[in-house]
Write a structure and sequence with these properties.
mainly alpha, 2 domains
Length: 205
Amino acid sequence: VIAEYAGLNKISVRKLIDNNKQDLEELGILSFEMTKPIKGSTGGRPTKIYQLNRNQAMLLITWLDNTEPVRAFKLALVKRFNEMENELQARKIARAVEKPKGITLHQSISEWVHYPRHGNTWHTIIRSLLATTVTGLTKKQIQARDTDWRKEKTLLDLLNSEEMERYKMLESIVIAMIEAGSDYEPIKTAIKSTMTTKKAGHLPR
């Protein structure tokens, strides 16, 4: 594939891989398959076709001459790998959302791979994100609308029943994304986008 789309000779690309096997194998198993000559063709031997992983492919294209076809292929390859990663991440999140909720938001945050960066502050950050999203208000505005607000009250205590339902729905999405290893920014974007979608759904027709 690299040879074809970069406008290069397949044999030269295969030799490049053969000559640099040791470097490529540091990035994973260097797998390949043997393809037989096309039926009806005269002569020929089975051809070795290497199957590189992302890192191996990216390393290989750094060794290629920077011709215009190669530059275009590099860009296309990076975009395709990003699409594949995003698709895989989306699948992980979708599967996690469908699983029974056997884990609380508090527990998932505490066990989050990114937890050490802000520690316990993550609990406040995430819960504030959810509360401000479902209400469309800032933290201070949520507190101000409750005449009996006291410091011991959490933002969750100040939500009405409709907001609480939306909060629980978004909470399950956050748990799923945390379980899938997402960082905070993708989580924030996903949660905030639900508010945009909700507003769009209420536009007059």
